[in-house]
Amino acid sequence: MTRCPLDAWIEARTGVSGPDPAALRRWQIESLFKIAEWARAQSPLYAARLAGVNLSSRDSAALPFTTPDDLRGRAHDLLCVSQDEVERVVTLTTSGTTGSSKRIFLTGHDLESTLDFFRRGMATFTGPGDAVLVLLPGRRDDCAAVLLARALEEIGVRAVLSPWPCPPYEALRLAVREGVTCLAALPSQLAALLAECPGGGIARVDRALTSGEPVSDSLRLAAARAGIEVYAHYGLTETGFGGGVECQAHSGYHLREADILVEIVDPFTGAPLLPGADGEVVLSTLSRVGMPLLRYRTGDLSRMLPGPCPCGSPLPRLGPVTGRIVRSSGHIRIQTPTKGTAQAS
């Protein structure tokens, strides 16, 4: 089993040797407060929200949360750069998002950071000689699917970007014609492809990256029966698409630690929780200067998996998303099964 290649990338990006989990956390907290100082100086929303916060305390729990409502109603007030520096505005409703669309502003630096993560993350299970059929939605410049295809080509992997939309029969035809060895798809797309091939495999495909929706155990089993190993990705539009990816051990998501700080908090009180406890995933972007997000409440229910990974990485991983935290009219409820879960039999 190969150690997750994200570790070497994190070490190179942060300068933290190992990377040692405790030292990396200290680096992340320091980076968080540097970006908080920048945001307070540049963003109208953060200037007001952080006005009474002692940023020299280095206590992440002292920072107020950012919420999806901020991105729906006050996205421009989160901007820390001029509109001229924005290269991509994402107004996107995915199968994992409910309610009105959120607006995310990304600079060229943000997009390059995502490409960098995709290059290293995909190296976990692809390499020269592979051909990846990218079925993920969207074909606009700098959308997740296009960025992923570009990143694959840059590491010597042939990317086959399907038409969008792409019905299952067309995807199967492409997989055969192009000699595809790996898929990049929504779990629901993978389930539809497997349903077209009952009892058999999908051409030469033996791996699949799933993203955009949680992947169910039944889908993993159905894929395994077809000779396909599933590698799940966790990410949000809010993170600039990339967030975390499984390694060959399939023991949680190895996170994009050089760019993102992940916390798990009590969904009712907001208090930080210990590793292993179920709670709400809260994300902070550490390297994004255009539209930084500080302690963003994702609404995803998960937990941090403590201890080293069987692949050899010493870093904790994010566990699977097991539910959604829904806030409405002052009430909070936990919604399961998880959003957009695809099934296959």
From TrEMBL:
Keywords: Ligase. Residues 89-284 form the AMP-dependent synthetase/ligase domain. The keyword Ligase applies. Transmembrane segments: none annotated. It comes from the Bacteria. GO terms for molecular function: phenylacetate-CoA ligase activity. Its EC number is 6.2.1.30. This is Phenylacetate-coenzyme A ligase. The gene is paaK_1.
